[in-house]
Amino acid sequence: MDNSAKHLLQRLVRRIPVSMLKSTLDKWERLTAEKRKSLDFTQSKWIITQELVALCEKSELTVKHITELEMIYLTAFCLFVCFLFPDDAHSVELMQFKELFKSHLRELQRNVSVKIKKHTDQAVWIRVAWGDGLSSPNHLKATYVVLYLQTPYVFVNALSSKHKPLLLQALTLSTRHQQIKAANLSGQKLTALRDLLMRQYQQVSQPPLMRHRMARETFGDGMLPALQSAVFKLETKFKGPTNEAMTQRDEPFICSVKFSSSNLLESLRHCASSGIASTPVTPMLSSIPLKGRNYFVITDNVLTA
Amino acid sequence: WNAERRRRRRRRRRPRRRLVSSFCYCLLFSSELWSVNRAWRGLAKGTLSYVTPLYQFRHTQLKSYSRQLSAFIAAEKQEGLAVEVGGLQNTFKVSFSVLRFRQEDPPKTVWCGWLSCINGNPEYLQSLPKDFTCLPLFCSKGAEDLSSLVKSWLQRTFDCCFGPLDINQTTLQWLAALWTNCHMETNIQNLKMIWTLPVLPPLQVTYTVDSDDVLDLWRSTRESSAEKSREAEDEVCIDFSEVTRFMQGLMSHFYRHFRVDLSAGELNQVSSALGSAKVNGKIKISSSRYLISIFSLLTECALLKMPI
């Protein structure tokens, strides 16, 4: 473990109150249970710090791991995730983002204290202490935001409903997106949420250029014939990742889906290029231009009718 | 004499009225009153608006309000401002009544509307100044010009304002779940949901699920508990997390086939045989089941939209 990592760890442990240290280390999971048990939290902080540094050295932890610990401590309360939309918006440079975010936020609320820091793993940390026209920023109740500039995900914690619209607006504008929505994902471990989303993001999403190309390849270039609707009658078994009762069902889940638009093919192409439809485009949708059909009956045996 | 009257009134003053969080007042243009059983049916369709609290609205003054509104409309007619007022004949009657007491069936009604507050948030209601009555949900059905006249009169008389009620995503999802739940007793035929995806040109997705299958999905997402399967007459105990899981189930089945993320769009409409609701405030309720729950949701929507 190099000196910078040691130094970072020491500084960090100094900040974490002993009462929270044990639970934070437990959540961190970088030290085995045995190692954690060996720490005696009744000793003085200084001794605990020394012991902890020694343990981390033995486990060969790096700065990256230490920053994870920092994230866990700082976002020990419930985090919720937001999703910036559309996700193929040009990503901004860090410096540009910093300027824009600070200026937008200050326009919306006077007396805010904003600190932005970039971590080694591409995470941008923002700490906002809120004041208002009359009082100075309250540093005891700061809001923490973590975002990864190349992705549409934003992790937020400790945000009151009063400040929520201000923060979300500042984030949307400074990252040059159009809107921000709650992603129905929340939890207490930032690293878990982050890994979940990044894995999904890498799996599902391709770089914008590739998406654009695949969208054009599937649906065509330029003006598309103005087909207005497509109907799919689905008679397949229920497919849902978390619902055991339904996936074990033998009977099909009968439903029908109708897509309509003033120009359906253009809408679908835009869905693919903007990431709303994952690429490569599913055969269900690509069958429309490929087979020249807009009515399909889909059963489990014939997934593309 | 006035001073004397004031003194007497002060002594007679009753203690502050018990907070009433549910009230529904109807405005009808007809000459008869409606029966309770059939009343809601004709009224549960129309366009919703929110209304800010009404200043000095007195439920004891309904007859007087009926007369005043009548006179107002007649005057507007005469001034030629509304030449063909929604088909009103020269003689018509305005009736302002409380939903509860009705006796006979109505003859032809050309316009009707209602003001209501069902299970309004008690904290908000208590925070209002004494002279204000909160009936935030307004529904109108009938000719648009009559709606404007009535709103205009209400604004003038009670110093309130109107605004369009967008039924939010949460409420639409609740309705989807509530109506699906109803399928256990009444055939809802199917559950239809319409989303709009923000692409160019905008893409509309109409996702219709068979009633038995959607009920199975709904039941599978509810926490299993013997008590929960027995619901009280009008009340149903549903947690919003169950509604969320239900919607996620629907969306993930969709995603598995089309690899399109519906949550990137907006749910615009939910409908079944029991009724329909659109994000622009148009509702139609064809069954009295869960009427109170539905109106409570809509009241909450209206209170949220209130600018004050």
Automatic annotation (TrEMBL), chain A:
It is found in: Chromosome, Centromere; Nucleus. GO terms for cellular component: chromosome, centromeric region; nucleoplasm. PANTHER family: CENTROMERE PROTEIN N. It comes from Xiphophorus couchianus (Monterrey platyfish). This is Centromere protein N. The keyword Nucleus applies. Keywords: Centromere, Chromosome, Nucleus. InterPro entries: CENP-NAC/CAD_complex, Chl4/mis15/CENP-N. The lineage of its organism: Eukaryota, Metazoa, Chordata, Craniata, Vertebrata.
UniProtKB/TrEMBL annotation, chain B:
It holds the Pfam family CENP-L. One of its GO terms (cellular component) is chromosome, centromeric region. It is found in: Chromosome, Centromere; Nucleus. Its main location: nucleus. Keywords: Centromere, Chromosome, Nucleus. Belongs to the CENP-L/IML3 family. This is Centromere protein L. It comes from Xiphophorus couchianus (Monterrey platyfish).
